[in-house]
Design goal:
The complex is a heterodimer. By secondary structure, chain A is mostly helical. Chain A is built from twelve helices and no strands. By secondary structure, chain B is of the alpha/beta class. Chain B has two domains: 189 residues, P-loop containing nucleotide triphosphate hydrolases (Rossmann fold); 68 residues, no CATH class. Chain B has eight helices and ten strands. Chain B is globular. Classes of the chains: A mainly alpha, B alpha/beta. The interface between A and B is medium-sized, with 27 and 33 residues.
Chain lengths: 262, 274
């Protein structure tokens, strides 16, 4: 009952927003509708265009490109983040020496790197992967670093008393602890991988969702821009749902993640 | 009976931040024979856990020696099992995995380790809970898993640091009886640190009293000549128990009052985790 009520309210918000948009753009309340529609399009047009694109085949090529870039940026960024996170967490001197540089690099707005990456890696997918990498890497790096550092000293002492050697400690204690922290930021890092891909495409490419939006924008096709954004939103929600599923499976042992507690 | 653990002239000093030093324990002489159940009692902050950590090899003493079955200890004590006060189970492993993993360093194949772990979990009364993660278990159940995890390796020396401290009174009694039951099957040397004198007497063959810290030492050593097998709840009602309790409490009370008089701030270094 409560869920139904919530759902009704959520749908209501959408209807009201779309309704206002529709009324303002279709009826001449604030001037000529043609001018207003040039700037704002109309919800029906956007929905129509989105539907047309989703039933066509061209958009899936672009979605495929964006998805490839996102996955590559996430996988490579996570792998590097895990590797460096572990190395730095287990080596105090290294961490101390590189600390200011890592902070500086992380503070840099990554968008400014996009033109340089385009120069270095060309206009294909790799310049987008590079941009996504710089975003994902730091999130994973900091979380893995924290995860290794924050291993409970009691759990660690206990594992050592059980006779575990370095390799076994890594497998049974450090690794799962670091992964926990990494998974807790999974939504953020996957989201940023996608941001890197789309922003990179937007700034210079010949394929992908970002490219589609940019293409529509360059010919003042507002309907096309909104339709591209809507498809992007659907895409993001789908990926996020997938991540939630993965997270639920991997973190069953965590309090609050499971309903089998008695 | 051979001597399982021998601490001789043990000094342990901690370096606190800011260049300060804190002498936790000094001049500790303690021998525990194989098959002997020895409890160490003392006021909070007296360095009971420090003593245990030295016997486990988790701490290196500043002076003195630690001998395990006649051999000087260097590094971790591989012949000892340790039961911690705080939760020490790996939260990302089920009860079964937590117990089975204890056999991995000994090179036992996974299938056999699982089989043995099931047996041990059944012995501590958790047959139905093997697939639970630690957060799905109660405090007492988690201690049972930790007990199984320690015992499955069949260590020759058992070290326990206020293991039942966080549990409620009823659970403590049940756990105490379970411990005695398991221990009496193959009597290992056992050092049991606690602040609960009644628990110490009910369980042990010997009770060692430590003085208030800093620079705590051993002030008294009592034999507990109560017959075994014992029931923790019932033995407290016996006359002999009361007499022993009165004797030990006489010396323990002095130390507790000293510690109390020194007030706060001295718990700075008392921490069960090394």
């Amino acid at each position: 009952m409560k869920r139904l009520k919530l759902l009704v309210l959520q749908v209501l918000v959408m209807i009201v927003c779309l309704g206002i948009w529709h009324v303002v753009t279709v009826y001449p309340l604030f001037g000529e509708t043609k001018t207003i529609q040039f700037f704002f399009s109309t919800p029906l047009q956007v929905l129509g265009r989105t539907f047309k694109q989703l039933t066509g085949s061209e958009i899936y090529y672009h979605l495929g490109i964006t998805l490839t870039e996102t996955v590559l940026a996430f996988v490579i960024g996570s792998a590097a983040g895990i590797l460096f996170g572990f190395t730095f967490a287990r080596n105090d001197l290294l961490a101390a020496v590189f600390d200011p540089y890592i902070k500086a690099a992380n503070a840099l707005p990554r968008v400014v790197l996009a033109p340089i990456f385009a120069l270095w890696f060309g206009l294909g997918i790799w310049s987008k992967v590079a941009l996504g990498f710089t975003l994902v890497f730091f999130i994973v790096f900091f979380n893995v670093y924290q995860g290794v550092r924050e291993v409970s000293p009691t759990v660690l002492a206990n594992a050592r008393m059980l006779g575990m050697n370095g390799r076994q400690l890594f497998r049974h204690v450090y690794w799962p602890s670091a992964l926990t922290w990494m998974f807790s930021s999974l939504h953020t890092s996957v989201g940023f991988a996608l941001v890197g891909a789309v922003v990179g495409e937007y700034l210079g490419s010949s394929a992908g969702l970002g490219y589609k939006i940019h293409e529509a924008e360059s010919v003042f096709d507002v309907t096309g821009v909104f339709a591209g954004m809507l498809i992007l939103a659907i895409f993001v929600i789908a990926i996020d749902a997938l991540v939630t599923m993965v997270e639920k499976r991997l973190l069953v042992w965590r309090p609050g993640q499971s309903s089998t507690t008695t | 009976m051979p001597v399982a653990v021998k601490l001789g002239g043990l000094d342990i000093t901690f370096h606190i931040e800011g260049g300060q030093r804190y002498k936790a324990v000094t001049g500790i002489d303690l021998s525990v024979a194989a098959g002997e159940f020895v409890s160490v009692v003392g006021p909070t902050g007296c360095g009971k856990s420090t003593l245990l950590n030295a016997a486990a090899g988790l701490l290196t003493p500043s002076a003195g020696k630690v001998e395990i079955f006649g051999k000087p200890l260097s590094g971790l004590n591989g012949r000892a099992g340790y039961l911690f006060q705080a939760d020490a189970l790996m939260p990302w492993k089920t009860a079964l995995q937590n117990v089975a993993v204890a056999l991995e360093p000994m090179g036992v194949p996974a299938a056999e380790a699982n089989e043995q772990a099931r047996g041990w979990l059944a012995r501590v009364g958790l047959r139905a809970f093997v697939d639970r993660y630690p957060h799905m278990l109660s405090g007492g159940q988690r201690k049972r898993v930790a007990l199984a995890q320690m015992l499955i390796r069949n260590p020759e020396i058992l070290l326990m640091d206020e293991p039942f401290g966080p549990l409620d009174a009823q659970t403590r009694q049940i756990m105490g009886n379970l411990l005695l039951d398991l221990w009496s099957k193959d009597r290992k040397a056992l050092i049991f640190v606690t602040h609960d004198l009644e628990e110490a007497i009910a369980l042990s063959d010997r009770v060692v009293v430590m003085s208030a810290g800093p620079a705590a030492g051993i002030v008294a050593d009592y034999k507990v000549p109560l017959p075994r097998p014992r029931d923790i709840a019932e033995i407290r009602l016996e006359k002999a128990f009361h007499e022993i309790h009165r004797d030990i409490w006489a010396s323990l009370r002095v130390e507790v009052q000293k510690a109390y008089a020194m007030g706060e701030g001295k718990e700075l270094v008392e921490d069960s985790t090394p």
